[in-house]
Description:
Number of domains: 2
Oligomer: single chain
Distance between the termini: 185 Å
Strand order of the largest sheet: 1-4-5
Strand content: 15-25%
Structural class: alpha+beta
Largest sheet: 3 strands, antiparallel
Order of helices and strands: HHHHEEEEEE
Shape: elongated
Amino acid sequence: MNRPTDAGHVPRPQLALVGHRPEDRRRGTAASPGPDPAAGRPAPPEARRPTAGGLGTEQPESERLQTELQERTADLQRLKAEFDNYRRRVHRDRLAIGEIAVVNVLAQMLPVLDAIAEAADQGEVTGGFRRVVRVFEAELTALGLRSVAALGDPFDPALHEAVTYTPAARAERAVCDAVLRQGYRVGDRLLRPAEVAVTGEPPAPR
């Protein structure tokens, strides 16, 4: 027996979700999302503010780098000045050590020069020996050795040692009348004073 139907009733169609219908799955399509309601709206003020690592820290960072650069530059300048002073001190010490070594060597040569001077006074420096003496004296002169007394030089107590003193009525000052033993110096360093005979004005009467 058939169920009676309402003549005025219209059957409701079945709804199918887009993308879930069998034909949509077969075509591989899906429902496209709708428009974003937030699109096109201006960003809030908080989003437009600079972050902690943005422009707000550029000025302090540049000042810190400038300060570090100045400190490193000052350190380098100080190190350079210290190195220059060290280099000058080393150079000065080397010169002093070299001068001391030369002085010590030349001081050992003074007895040889005394023997040559004595032989020359006796007329024994002749021939080939004379040439040897000239070369020897030239080498000592090249090393800076200088004599400090000669006949007629004014008497200088810093360089001369008076062995004898002869008063002379017409003498205006004391002079070296004879060199008994030559003295020598190297630069400003006196190796040995010269022994001299001095002639000068007579002493004042008491």
